[in-house]
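Comment thread on ticket #2218

A.B. wrote:
> Attaching the input chain for the structure job we discussed in standup.
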Amino acid sequence: MTHDAQTAFHFDVPHDRRDTYSQKWMNLPTTDCIAMCLADMDFQAPQAVTDAFAARVAHGIYGYTHYPDGLTQHITAWVQRRYSWSVAEEWIAMNVGVVASLCTIIRALTQEGDRVIIQTPVYTPFFTSIRNNQRVVVENQLVLEDGHYQMDFDALEAQARSAKLLILCNPHNPVGRVWTREELTRVGEICLAHGVTIVSDDIHCDFALSRPYQALAALDDAFAQQSITCLAASKTFNIAGLDTSYEIIPNPDLREKIAREKAGRGISKPNMFGLLALEQVYQHGDAWLEALCAYLRASHALLHAHLDPLEQVRCTTPEGTYLAWLDCRAYGRTSRELCDYLLQTARVRLTPGRIFGATGEGFLRLNYGTDHTTLRTGLERIAEAFSALAPA
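C.D. wrote:
> Ran it. Output below, let me know if you need it in another format.
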């Protein structure tokens, strides 16, 4: 992807989001603070989305909305085109967000008190989706060796004997791993052996930046029959505020149980603009996404140029997502203390690693999904602040 192609999509243009109800950019202490926290990007969605919205708004009537003709064909075509995964249209079930999918699936497939495995440190709603539904969190802690996270398969095997579900994160938020075929195969084999259903949150799959994304369900039909894959265009095309996602459920019995749970809870279809955006990006978003991924790979160079010289901070290049995971344990402070220090000293807001579980303590998550001017400024401030901070 050439520089001209990237420029055509305006990734390098800063955008002020402070008066747009942006959760990421709200409640900052000063006007010059930079938000590098919540996992959404500061890039405008593809022009096809804006144009389709403009035409729909001009119509002026926003009544009850049916699914667009061909929506499931666009989804299956995208998955086939991008990941060589042949998905039947009847496997597709719509929802209003991946977290909503997690809660729905937990309620549909487990009972109160059942054990659900998650691989920590991991996306915070994994914890809350389980606990808020009176299930038990089982932490299969990832192992960090030489800056590289791996799964603990021995522990997973032992934990699977008494669990009902495993929630997988692929690519993994926050550590940035894109799991290999071999790793996913081992997960699938363990879960099959012990009757554990796999719920795979693959919302970041379009950001597999250094190795190809592999869906676990696509590896083996037996895995597919014992798994649900949760996906959305929301992270990919920066349209998370439109509350639209979908599940891929090859097993008809699981599909029926989940559909009944949605009906019982009154979960309706996504709103008209979310459906319209999904239709547009899956037809016209390939070039935009390719340019974005090239831009994010260039962001890695900025990350390393500013953070590698810091002796007390270890920043590995994420294999996927637009989230960097910073090991700051050498400072001997909690992740909350480090975040507060950076906000006060550097005027940059990051996410404390502790919210992803106890194994995230001492780490920070940095969202680099922004224009390079803003990213460079934020990294310069962070580097200066850390340089002035004494290690433990």
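A.B. wrote:
> Thanks. Noting for the ticket: The chain has two domains: 3-45+286-387, 65-284.
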